Amino acid sequence: MKITIILLLTASNLFGQNISLKATYSKSLTQAVISLSQKEDEAAKILRGFEIQAIELLKEIKFELIVKDSKSLFYANDNNPLEGKKNYKTAISIGINLKGKYYTDFEKNEVINQKESLGETFLVKEKFDKYKWVLHNETKKIGQFLCYKATAIEEVIHPFSNEIRKNIITCWYNPEIPVKCGIGKYTNLPGLIISLETNNTKMILNDLVLNPKTGVEIKKPSKGKPLSATEFNNIGIEMTRNFKERKKL
User: Fold this and answer.
1) 16 falls in which pLDDT band (50, 70, 90)?
2) Pairing verdict, β 201-210 and 20-29
3) Please, are residues 207 and 3 in contact by the beta-carbon 8 Å criterion?
4) Residue 88, SS3 per DSSP
5) How confident is the model over 195-236, as pLDDT tens digits?
6) 191-224 b/e with 16+ CB inside 10 Å = b?
7) What is the mean predicted confidence (pLDDT) over 128-137?
8) Contact 230, 164 (CB under 8 A)
9) Percent of the chain with pLDDT over 70
10) Minimal CA–CA distance to 174: which of 209, 151, 148, 205?
């Protein structure tokens, strides 16, 4: 795999100055999002068809990480409106959210996810150091980078059962580019994330521009209703409860 790198500096130079960069990632599904059971009924076949459509959509979309000093912005970057793309609604229906953005500031220990849900815009706030990474003495080469492995446990609330599930997050990072801002909410590693795997998706670096002359303006999102991650999750739990109650009637 070849990763395009522009203006790559040595580690000593990077540590001696404020870092700015633009990184582009691609995203893919590594396993079924919904159809994890062995059922072969008609509903399962339909869901698998949805997943195939979502996989095709993800091939068209790139994700951009912009870092400047202690702040970053991460979002899906596409020249055309996402809503107009084929299979967009299908991807949303199976839980692949492509809109919104993540703003991080590690000096203030905050991650803000500006997202649209339930017809509203929310500013969901979490801590920058939320994940307790385990740094492993394991390396591998990804493109031109010698990467180190890190893992963390993520607790996810299932949208229908409200069960708390624990997923393993695996990152491969490069300490020669010592930025703590990461991919979306996955932050606070001692180097730029080159590859990241969750239980069903994978993101990998495609292009990197270090110290770009333009395109690194970062603004903190201000539009939306401020909520903590717990408050936002509680809204989803309440909606699920109401939906189940209506189904009983």
Assistant:
1) very low
2) antiparallel
3) yes
4) helix
5) 999 877 888 999 999 988 877 789 999 999 998 888 887 776
6) bbbbbbbebbebbbbbebbbbeeeebebeebeeb
7) 95
8) no
9) 63
10) 148
pLDDT tens, residue by residue, 165-188 = 888 999 999 999 999 988 989 999
Token pair belonging to 43: 């509903």
Q: How far apart are CA 216 and CA 68, in angstroms?
A: 7
Torsion-angle region of residue 215: left (phi > 0), alpha (psi -120 to 50) or beta? left
Tokens linked to 89 = 């609604």
111 pLDDT more than 80:
yes
- Measured distance CA(193)–CA(173) in Å, rounded: 4
DSSP structure class, residue 240 = H
Contact 62, 26 (CB under 8 A): yes
Asked whether the beta carbons of 76 and 99 are under 8 A apart, the reply is: yes
